[in-house]
Amino acid sequence: INAEYGKPAAVRDQKHGTKMSGPQPISSGIAIVAYICISSSMLIVNKAAVAALPYPYFVTNLQMFVSAAAIYIMKLKGDIEFPDPDLAKIKSWIGVTTAWLLPILANMRALQLLNVETVLVFRTMTVLGVALGDFIFLNNRIQMVPLIGLFTITVGGFTYGIYDVSYNREGYFWATLYWGTMVLNSLYIKMVFIKSESMTTWEKSFLSNLMTVPVLLLASGYSENLSTCFSALMNLNTQGILIVTLSCVMGLGISVAGTRCREAFSATGFDVLGNMNKFISIALSRLLLGSIVSSQSLAGLIVALLGGVLYSPLGSRLINKMTGTEDYEVRNKKVSSPTLSSLEKGKGAADKN
């Protein structure tokens, strides 16, 4: 675990002698790798966890509780530093907690009713909504090639849905809710993070996890019967205990790594990052869970994921290289930045004067 996560952006930047406001490349790189590795398998693990312990709110709350407790224990041991939350900060974080919690709940419920690939497509299709909001609310413009990539993702997602052999009306309702809340999640939390640079990654993760615990406890008690949940937890076999424990450990990892990646990327960039490791999720789902997917749906899924490649910087570079064009920023940089020879000419003229 990178200890730099426990320092505010301003402190990290001062230490490294730079005026950058965002996370440093090395620690951000670690977070990106961790997020990709965990995100690619989290859907599979959560699917297995709610199969072993069929109470999604209870399982989710276990993950949140373990994450909050682990972060606070590290704080007490002195491994990380952040101030204890006061009432004002807790009130300011209610919106983040809500935006963070809703897609998790919808996702867990959808996983009970649909296969992993179907939930994956709804996750992939969030990028178009996030990109639109990113442009409207955060003023992040999108170049032509990435925009084509976003539409390709959407077309692939619709293709998958049309030919989905495991269609379930209730499952699709929860998956659609998952889509909408993920769009809200990506945009709202990014806007709050922009205004909260003084907070550390650990502090943000701690608050997000801690504040969801009482909400999920009420939800689980109302709809799942807590005594039944605890009884089922106590009666889990060894395999079930390992799966639920693994989901809690991965929940901590994706919480911290995801928070750091949100700090480093735009809302759309973070959303695409979460989508583009899903080839691994598909392979694991087919191998471990035996998911049944029609060839047409699989083709649509591949199209959606290739759209994500088009959206990425790699896709833009490949298209520009094939067409012999340069993107706007590169052209603008060449026009606006003086060359060495022009600077030398200017110096020579000044010397003559």
Written account of the structure:
The chain is 79% helix and 0% strand. The model is unreliable at 1-23 and 327-353 (pLDDT under 50). The chain is built from 18 helices and no strands. It has helices at 9-15, 25-52, 56-77, 87-92, 94-113, 116-124, 126-138, 144-162, 169-194, 201-223, 226-234, 238-264, 267-275, 278-289, 295-311, 313-323, 328-336, 340-352. It has 353 residues and is mainly alpha-helical.
> How many extended strands?
0
Please report the distance between the alpha carbons of the first and last residues.
Answer: 59 Å
- Range of strand content: under 5%
The helix content, as a percent range, equals over 70%
Major beta sheet, specifics? Answer: none
> Total helix count?
18
In one word, what is the shape? globular
The average pLDDT is 76
Computed Rg: 23 Å
Q: What secondary-structure arrangement, pairings included, does this model have?
A:
Blueprint: H1 9-15, H2 25-52, H3 56-77, H4 87-92, H5 94-113, H6 116-124, H7 126-138, H8 144-162, H9 169-194, H10 201-223, H11 226-234, H12 238-264, H13 267-275, H14 278-289, H15 295-311, H16 313-323, H17 328-336, H18 340-352
Helix pairs in contact: 2-12, 2-14, 3-10, 3-12, 5-9, 5-10, 6-8, 6-9, 7-9, 7-13, 8-15, 10-12
